[in-house]
Amino acid sequence: MTRYALYVELKARSGKEDALTAFLTGAKPLVDAEPATRAWFGARFDAQTFAIFDAFDDESGRDAHLSGKVAAALIAHAAELLAEAPQIRRADVLADKLPG
Hints:
Blueprint: E1 4-11, H1 17-32, E2 37-44, E3 49-56, H2 59-66, H3 69-81, E4 87-92
Antiparallel strand pairs: 1-3, 1-4, 2-3
Helix pairs in contact: 1-3
InterPro entries: Dimeric_a/b-barrel
GO molecular function, one term: monooxygenase activity
Keywords: Monooxygenase, Oxidoreductase
């Protein structure tokens, strides 16, 4: 069972909504290369509000993801893509349903 998660809310800079969409879509191969990331979702809630949700079996997997390639790329492009700093929330998973 996954025990740890991250919820990262992202607010797109005005006019950068399509670029943030492309960033999240393009991040999937990087996440696929992370064996400790059990589930990963890039989502859009409205014109400017996006989020990343991911889940891990252990805290070391979550920490590895936070220091991985997606996080590094997001930090590198934050000033260009985001209206404000990402809101990163760590969560404990209470229940899950995953394939396999």
